[in-house]
């Protein structure tokens, strides 16, 4: 089995949807996971055209760097000529997961399943606002230790300790009297943690 230790050297991408169209007009999610750190991305998109996918990937790459390799399944939007040209221009090697060997695509499939379960929980009051819950879902998963690496993905990606919701609450407890704002902050962080833990 290939071992990737350098962050964002190899990523896996996939599409989730169609989902209920949100107020912002999004019906799909482009998902991405870094194979070394298990750092996830998930961005709501209105359609799954190659142009839309390329634009979203460029936005992600502008923040995290350009990977050497992108792995995906054989969905036509992900292997179109325009996507191949995008990868060529960015110096990215495109690899396809074997149709009868899903283990090579396992990390992204697990991320997709976890994400959808968290979104169902967080947006149970309004299924048409799931895209507004993506930052909360990402926040929770990035800050929780990953089962495979034993570390929070965000710490593996950035190479340092990161101040998350638990640290914020601890600081508040050490510096202020417990009040309604603190209770709300704790409740929110606890809800994120419970939603994530139930799905893993």
TrEMBL record:
PANTHER family, per database record: INTEGRASE CATALYTIC DOMAIN-CONTAINING PROTEIN (PTHR37984:SF15), PROTEIN CBG26694 (PTHR37984)
Biological process, per Gene Ontology: DNA integration
Pfam families documented for this protein: rve (PF00665)
Taxonomy of the source species: Eukaryota, Metazoa, Spiralia, Lophotrochozoa, Mollusca
InterPro entries in UniProt: Integrase_cat-core, Retrovirus_Pol_polyprotein, RNaseH-like_sf, RNaseH_sf
Protein known as: Pol polyprotein
Domain Integrase catalytic: 3-161
GO MF, one example: nucleic acid binding
């Amino acid at each position: 089995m290939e071992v990737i230790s350098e962050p964002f050297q190899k990523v896996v991408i996939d599409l989730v949807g169609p989902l209920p169209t949100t107020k912002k007009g999004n019906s799909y999610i482009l998902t991405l996971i870094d194979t070394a750190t298990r750092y996830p991305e998930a961005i709501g998109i209105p359609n799954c055209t190659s142009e839309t996918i390329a634009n979203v990937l460029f936005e992600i790459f502008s923040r995290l760097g350009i990977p050497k390799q992108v792995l995906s399944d054989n969905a036509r939007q992900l292997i179109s000529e325009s996507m191949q040209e995008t990868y060529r221009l960015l110096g990215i090697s495109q690899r396809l997961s074997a149709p009868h060997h899903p283990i090579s695509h396992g990390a992204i499939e697990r991320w997709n399943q976890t994400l959808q379960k968290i979104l169902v929980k967080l947006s149970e009051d309004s299924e048409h606002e799931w895209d507004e819950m993506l930052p909360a879902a990402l926040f929770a998963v990035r800050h929780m230790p990953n089962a495979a690496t034993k570390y929070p993905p965000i710490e593996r990606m950035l190479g340092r300790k990161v101040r998350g919701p638990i640290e914020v609450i601890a600081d508040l407890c050490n510096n202020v009297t417990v009040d309604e704002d603190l209770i709300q902050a704790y409740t929110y962080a606890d809800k994120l943690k419970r939603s994530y833990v139930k799905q893993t």
